[in-house]
TrEMBL record:
Residues 4-136 form the HTH marR-type domain. It comes from Amycolatopsis cynarae. This is MarR family transcriptional regulator. The lineage of its organism: Bacteria, Bacillati, Actinomycetota, Actinomycetes, Pseudonocardiales. It holds the Pfam family MarR. InterPro entries: HTH_MarR-typ (IPR000835), MarR/SlyA-like (IPR039422), WH-like_DNA-bd_sf (IPR036388), WH_DNA-bd_sf (IPR036390).
């Protein structure tokens, strides 16, 4: 195995382990990591159109329509016409969705603490630059950029 193959293997393993741990933490809430991410984004930045949510959400296929459909059907999200443009449909959290978004944020903090302990003393800025290089010129690079812009703006 060469260094690039080893690096790819490690990236995939870290992503899977992250998903497994977060899903384990969220299971008692009855939601998945993808659902929690959508709820947290809408709780923080919503209401958003489906397209706007898609630019912020790292979802399979890059389009969250099936995820949103399931969450609307389960009562976690709402679809409503925008107040300024009745043709525009906005998605927002229901009261139950807002509660779950906050509960998910608290549960995910356990994972962040665990990871923070693992990374203590390591060169995180260099590793971040390395990962950014892997995403350069990909659609997910734009998703990461948009999330960072919004986070810095304090939205």
């Amino acid at each position: 195995m060469d260094a690039i193959e080893d690096f790819g293997l490690l990236l995939k393993a870290v992503a899977r382990e992250t998903d497994r741990r977060i899903n384990d933490l969220l299971r008692p809430l009855g939601i998945t990591a993808s659902q929690a991410e959508a709820l947290q984004l809408l709780d923080r930045y919503g209401p958003l159109s489906l397209g706007e949510l898609g630019t912020l959400l790292i979802a399979e296929g890059g389009h969250p329509s099936r995820l949103v459909d399931r969450m609307v059907a389960s009562g976690l999200l709402r679809r409503e016409s925008a107040s300024d443009d009745r043709r525009r449909i906005e998605i927002s959290c229901s009261p139950q969705g807002r509660e779950l978004a906050r509960a998910a944020r608290e549960r995910k903090e356990t994972f962040r603490d665990w990871l923070r302990d693992r990374l203590d003393g390591l060169d995180l800025p260099s590793t971040t630059r390395l990962l950014e290089a892997c995403l350069d010129d990909t659609p997910l690079a734009e998703t990461v950029r948009e999330r960072r812009v919004r986070a810095l703006a304090g939205e």
